[in-house]
Amino acid sequence: xxxxxxxxxxxxxxxxxxxxxxxxxxxxxxxxxxxxxxxxxxxxxxxxxxxxxxxxxxxxxxxxxxxxxxxxxxxxxxxxxxxxxxxxxxxxxxxxxxxxxxxxxxxxxxxxxxxxxxxxxxxxxxxxxxxxxxxxxxxxxxxxxxxxxxxxxxxxxxxxxxxxxxxxxxxxxxxxxxxxxxxxxxxxxxxxxxxxxxxxxxxxxxxxxxxxxxxxxxxxxxxxxxxxxxxxxxxxxxxxxxxxxxxxxxxxxxxxxxxxxxxxxxxxxxxxxxxxxxxxxxxxxxxxxxxxxxxxxxxxxxxxxxxxxxxxxxxxxxxxxxxxxxxxxxxxxxxxxxxxxxxxxxxxxxxxxxxxxxxxxxxxxxxxxxxxxxxxxxxxxxxxxxxxxxxxxxxxxxxxx
Amino acid sequence: xxxxxxxxxxxxxxxxxxxxxxxxxxxxxxxxxxxxxxxxxxxxxxxxxxxxxxxxxxxxxxxxxxxxxxxxxxxxxxxxxxxxxxxxxxxxxxxxxxxxxxxxxxxxxxxxxxxxxxxxxxxxxxxxxxxxxxx
Lengths: 401, 135
Ligand code: SF4
Ligand code: SF4
Fold this sequence. Notes:
A: nine-stranded antiparallel beta sheet; B: 135 residues; 4 helices; 8 strands; 32% strand; binds iron/sulfur cluster
């Protein structure tokens, strides 16, 4: 019997909704069967906690006296440059931004100790942050310099807005070369020394709703420890990749853009992150609830690690050169066992995404819904799915005359 | 039987001395070389696991010290900060001695200092600065 989101919300309000995590649902369906569980369960909660580089925060700093126009000028938070191409005191702080004087990879591999992701963590933690800015001065905004401490609690708006998060599946990175390489997939030891993957697998939000039948624009979610929303499909959203029989993409596919009030979030779920030799980023915690509207949607949420496949990609050559092809497929049961086989060799495998934290997020979200604190939403608009034909295009370079 | 993990720092002048041979032959010790690094004109570094009779072990270590080798015990060098650890697991695949283990059920990491040979692989690999080296 099909349910509606309205009916489920009615139960949530009364504290009667049956909520389980995307991990718990697997056993439940195996024991009781799809029919019975579809009746019994109202919501399945998912979670993911991994480095997500397309993340950032926009802040409205408030006007100083006399006023300064940062737009078109230069501004820094704890020496990390922020984007100023907006009105006078709106700036955007990106997760991968680095201080101008950071040596980067000059001394290889660079250490990348502090950057945008760390400023975000400090802001959320309620620490004072140093704002330093210069401007060109106008009649209405005469001031040309400012240096002051700021604190998140005193600012007007501080909003986390991430253009691409929660990748539906990802690559498994290996290194076929004979030297250590430093990538956004971590340190990769030579000659297939290790393999790094990055997905919460069976707990991951979009892997539990493979065709985006419930997750869409306006979906209320767990974001960084508070309530957030899906704002749009994420950049590089690519629904048309190869899928298994049960609909699960076998390569990086869908993504979401998310938004939420940073003032309500917690540094436990927005962690400044360093990849030696690569750069800095932010590790973001996201959890998305999936309403069990019918048996089909339930079946999707019962997907387990052994049914989710990822492509093994060489990050020493194939990835940087943009060459197609994969060294093979593995499923997440194999990956989480800690050992996979690549080209006949046994390779230790590890995740960049924390399964323990993903599980915690799914549990927290479950608690919110059970207590009636979190209601589900009907998407305002759905994300482009397979029928959209949308693909992820490379950049075509053309000669500049 | 006693076991010790030690870090030997020795000057260039001692690099060509067969010290492990003496430890085996004269003091009846079992030697397991965990890590070795000798750079030209610089100091040599050797990380050993030494097993043997307690008295022989002490005598062997005294022999090394008398040669002018600086000896540190290994166990304290790498510190895992559980509070900062996100239990991502990156360190698992990069540690040559499986000093980090993940509990299959809880999916949480634990660190076994005893297995660590201070190769420093995990220091660079941990994205959350949860691993520190203490000097
Ligand atoms: S790499 Fe760092 S954060 Fe990740 S599990 Fe190991 S110690 Fe913890
Ligand atoms: S330094 Fe780190 S990687 Fe190396 S042995 Fe110790 S724990 Fe393992």
